[in-house]
UniProtKB/TrEMBL annotation:
Protein name: Two-component system, chemotaxis family, response regulator CheY
InterPro entries: Bact_response_regulator, CheY-like_superfamily, Sig_transdc_resp-reg_receiver
Gene name as annotated: cheY
Domain Response regulatory intervals: 4-120
Superkingdom to which the source organism belongs: Bacteria
Keywords: Phosphoprotein
Provenance organism: Novimethylophilus kurashikiensis
GO biological process: phosphorelay signal transduction system
Gene3D superfamilies for the chain: 3.40.50.2300
SUPFAM superfamilies documented for this protein: CheY-like
One Pfam family named in its UniProt record: Response_reg
């Protein structure tokens, strides 16, 4: 059975690139346009992995991570930040919220797949 991944980003081009990269490697991908949309979709279906941007309308990535971690089915699910934010303070906030890892945009598709394989196989 294919591993399912939720990708949350307000940029259509980033969502498209992430989805294309993951789908070409055999993963099943669901896209969400912002944190609130991501949370709504995560409540309807369980995912093996969640990618989220930080800066989005309606709900940012840190708030999304905290909201997901509050749900029993997402206590141990890997959640990776994929963002332009590279500052140590932001990374510390992300870890405190429950982020599993951090990737900086623009991303290298091979590096993205390497990280995905590492966290969910």
């Amino acid at each position: 059975m294919a591993k399912t991944i939720l990708t949350v980003d307000d940029s259509p081009s980033i969502r498209q690139m992430v989805s294309f990269t993951l789908k070409s490697a055999g993963y099943e991908v669901t896209e969400a346009v912002d944190g609130q949309d991501g949370l709504d979709k995560a409540k309807l279906k369980s995912f093996n992995l969640v990618f989220t941007d930080q800066n989005m309308p309606r709900m940012d990535g840190i708030t999304l991570i905290k909201s997901l971690r509050a749900l029993p089915q997402y206590k141990a699910t890997p959640i990776l930040m994929l963002t332009t934010e590279a500052g140590e303070a932001m990374k510390t906030q992300g870890r405190a919220a429950g982020a599993t890892g951090w990737l900086v945009k623009p991303f290298d598709p091979n590096k993205l797949l390497e990280v995905v394989k590492k966290v969910i196989g």
